[in-house]
Write a structure and sequence with these properties.
This protein is an alpha+beta fold. The protein contains 17 helices and 27 strands. α9 runs parallel beside α16, α12 packs parallel to α13 and α15 crosses α16. The relative contact order is 0.13.
Amino acid sequence: MNTVGQPVSRAEGRLKVTGGARYTADIPVTGAAHAAIVHSTIGNGRTVSIDTGAAEKAPGVRAIFTYRNMPRMNPTPKPWSHLRPHGQGYLPLQDDRIHYAGQPIALVVAETRDQATYAGTLVSVKYAPEPPVMFTGETARDAVDPPQFLWPVASSVGDADAAIAAAPVKVEQTYTTADRHHNQMEPHATTAVWDADGTLTLYETTQHIFGTKELVAIVLGLPPEKINVVCQFLGGGFGGKAYVWPHTLLAALTAKIVGRPIKVQLTRAQMYSMAGHQPATIQTVTLGAEGNGKLTGIRHQSISPTPVFDNYIEYAALASRSLWAASGGIVTNHRVVHVNRNTPTALRSPHEALGHFALETAMDELAYASGVDPVALRLLNDTEVDPLSGRPFSTRGMRRCLIEGAARFSWDRRNPEPGSMRDGRWLLGQGVAGAIYTHWRWPAKARVTLSGDGAALVETGSHDLGTGTYTVMRQVAADALGLPLEKVTVRLGDTRLPDSHASIGSATMANAGASVLLAAEAARDKAIALALTGRDAPFAGAAADAVVAADGRLAVAGTNLNVTYAELLERNGLSALAADAAYDPLPEADGPRAVFSFAAVFAEVRVDPELGVVRLNRFVGAYDAGRIINPKTARSQAIGGIIWGVGQALLEQLETDPTMARFVNRNLSGYLVPTNADIPELDIVFVGEFDAEASPLGAKGLGELTAVSVAPAIANAVYHATGKRVRDLPITVEKIL
């Protein structure tokens, strides 16, 4: 009955491939009207006039809302944290100000989506434009210190500046990353339904049903108990569906006003201006080292854009705080430039993927400057103690990742000289990068109910993002109860279920999964108590710790005594037996040990010396994510993360119109993402061990870890192939040539 650790196929797989899984926009709602958003075409200024006359006469139109007739909303809560809700600070249709291109300026409600969209084109707007502020090298010089957002903005351990100044080997370079967008397969969508008793139900594309419920309650001034949020399947989130975006608030409020359910579905182009993005960064990394490559000092500074009305920070320098030891000290800092754009948000992998590109590229430059092999350099600077907090790591598989990954990759066959390896006309290059990823410990609740037929129902307000949550929760509960998988059903994605945290930060398995484990164990223990002391107790007189659960029944070890759950409930006249449990861990900063996930990745690229084309040729990823609950779904996560990293390294960049301050490549023909033809076979190995500090399940975060250091490994491989160091992502043909 040991299903944990087995490569179980997805429980919902057949539903998804046959079209049976209903995503938010698929859910039918009787009598629903449709709404379309009209957006500003300028990036800064105000609206002088909005003429809706022609639009109001268009076929099917039922209402049009602008800042003149939209009810006023309450401000969003500050400060934001992972356990509190968050939405864009500037609320929609509340005044005449324009802060970014694509900002909502009107909402059209009509009988059909096409009618609403067409009527929106008839809304006539006159503006008083002002020059927009953009993120450039020039405006970056005016960056300011922001208030704390998640972690402290700056950190300092030791005297890094003095250590770097005295170091015999130094590397100091500036690295940049591009604006990127999530491009989930499923567009953002909301259906808002008000019942006669004043209850609001939101069918929502979200990674945080309880955060959505709480923020909507605050902004609309509703009692939280009068709001339900439902999201049973999500067609990709990647962080972009963790916030409450303007269209959700507009749908909820206008549905109340018009007295009908309202459906809003963003177009692909609208997703670029309405629902967050990953901001670009300008990072400067300075490394000081002894002649043998042993680090003495690290200084990492990052600048990123943030809206004029918010203070989102991309913590790119976070990676340098804990990845490698530096004997003299480590100092990091983050600054922001307030610009005319919508609010950024987390994108797989936020903070770490950007910072690792700068840090791990600088480490490669240090390897060449000191004459030390890049893998040996990282082994030399490995540490068992977190440099930032001084706490020992709970488990740290970095050495295993480096050593086993290098062996699978055949790193020892690499000629270290840049430009020395060829395959016909192609230049070959090989690169490596290490990775660290924050492990989040958050509270979660779950309920497990044993029914009269011997089956079990697992309920928790967690989410399925397409990563296999329904499956792994079944595995955890089945093992704890001693039931076959087919006897366990999982319900997710509804705020009427037990509270859980957002499905972000690669935290679902370790935390929501822990609550499921505890609830299943509690249900099993209740059944054991009935077997020992209930009506016609079959195990009367036996010791509780002698009872085991397996093969769908309870048994006393070393005896022939056994009883099924169904028989036990029938003896006691029960139709069901339920148990609730809460997992309430210490926050990660308060634990006795520092908990992180780790990785080492190895990339081989082929570069056409005449065309400048870069192709990924081979890839090995070695990961320490603690105990792996399902190797099949975990491997799928790694494949997805590596593909994200390939996009970051070689393809993805949002381009901004220098006059209008708006993203211009707002579709999948203009914004390039990897396809099957870009990805070779990927070799993935998990080297972690059970981490009791991370979770009762022993699991640590995996999903985002796998995207973290792909880009620097590829960039380092490109240097090895060509002798040309590219410090600006993505690595395009022009930069190679």
